Amino acid sequence: MEEQMKSALKYFQLSSDAFSFLKDYVNTNSLSVDFEPALLACISWLMLAQAAELAYLKSASFKDEVAAKVAAYAADYYKEAYTLVKTESSKKAISEVGRFAFAFSEFRDNRTLNLLRTFFLQEIMPIMFVKRLLFQSKTEYHAGNQAQTDRKYGIKVHATDLTDQAVNKCTVAVFTPTLRTNQEKITKAATAAHKDNDFVYQARIPDSKTLETILAQPIAKPLPVILFPLTPDFRDNLTFQFNFF
Fold first, then answer.
1. Is residue 234 a part of any domain in this protein?
2. Domain that holds residue 10
3. Which of 36, 77, 220, 228 has the most CB atoms at less than 10 Å from its CB?
4. pLDDT tens by residue, 79-110
């Protein structure tokens, strides 16, 4: 599993750079509408967000301070991707891609076309939104644990409250099991933090404005494709072969 995760992390970063290159190329060259710079930038950010999420999966071996920064990194990148996919130019490009795919589909009916057009808008967009909130909550959760270690009990209470608020905004059904597990852990931590502070520490809960921002830990970046193809098993699925009889 370790090697597979390393490979996935590498390919997400390579993919991010490829989409970033396309975005810059399209900005200076006139191509079809589906090569929309905002959408290409969105996918580039999404690749990095998934790379950061992979890195976070290893955060069990990290200190809470580091885990909070890695989670913040993933949250920031999912936010960037979500912001870009909401633009009108991205939505227009998604619609055009849907029409193109529909034209080459053997199942040409209105239901198929609607599914293609709404895939990003009704499936991918909500997932980006939920992932951002989920990693925001994980950022605060780990920050709270670190505050507990540092004996900053007021900050611990404040962090668990913020964590609870972030998770409660997540309403996408597909994430319900994951969010429920996360919510139970967070609710338990928040209740314990308040109880300990009320009966033992009695520390003042600080105002958000007085706290330092949790700085994201850069854990992934676009990697340029130096060797092509990347694997000997590569197949160019975009090459159309025509047989003439």
1. no
2. 6-210
3. 77
4. 999 999 888 877 777 766 655 444 445 544 55
